[in-house]
Amino acid sequence: MGATLSAIRAVAPKLAPSERRVADVCVERPQDVAWWSAADVAEHAETSTATVIRACQNLGFKGFQHLRMLLLRDLGSADTGSAGALTVEENGAGLVRAVFGELATDLAGALAPLDEDSFERAVRALAEAERVLVVGNGGSGPSAAAVAVRFILNGRHAEAPTDAVIQQLTAGHLTSRDVCLAVSDSGLNSVTLRPVEAARAAGATVIGVTSYARSTLVEKSDIGLVIGGGSGPWGGLGASATVVQLAFLISLQIAVCRARGGSAEAAAETFKQIVPLIHP
Fold this sequence. Notes:
Layout: H1 4-11, H2 17-28, H3 30-33, H4 38-45, H5 49-58, H6 64-77, H7 80-83, H8 92-108, H9 116-128, E1 132-136, H10 141-153, H11 164-172, E2 179-183, H12 190-201, E3 205-210, H13 216-220, E4 223-226, H14 239-259, H15 264-278
Parallel strand pairs: 1-2, 2-3, 3-4
Helix pairs in contact: 2-4, 2-5, 4-5, 8-14, 9-14, 10-14, 11-12
């Protein structure tokens, strides 16, 4: 429920230009598209009705009517009271409420593109790996570092070097018993893709986390994990994408911890080792 737009955004970037315009119209005007005909969408996307139907199918829907049904369902389930809070504010508390409202909406639909079987495969691979290398750069760098720390705190050895050269050198020394977990919102960051290629050449299992199903990262990964991004007024600033990415990686780490038989008590014991370093 509420995940239709996330599903569209995940696939749209690799559509043909005319089909991408259809996807853009759906994301930008979902309230209108839910009531429009295929001809109406075609007019606003400057394409044909046949292209609208083909675009819907390539986005993963049975057709345009299937897409309309899901948009109507999402609109019907939306809380109109909270929806009003998403109005763009200039500053102050209203802006904070609007940003949080957008984040909540995007988080609610972020798992729509995720393939559950792929997620389970990723959990098993991370739980069984001898060595885990986490790679992330740019806006995804902090998320990569954060999940590596959480792995370590829960007894799962992991490393997340911040230097691009060290990332690539480390990836080249992985083996078939290891995993490279690569994080990139766009799935197109060449700095992240280079260690991914090195890890694949070394025989390691590559798990890619991105917001776009047809990205280069997914193509180069053994296991692709696709999650939603954001589409509101702050989506272009990476607000929702960053929050969704970190929330997903934390969830992945928790699932790996459970698969390895980890517990909150074990994490607490690890944390006790850190306390004297922080506060002697």
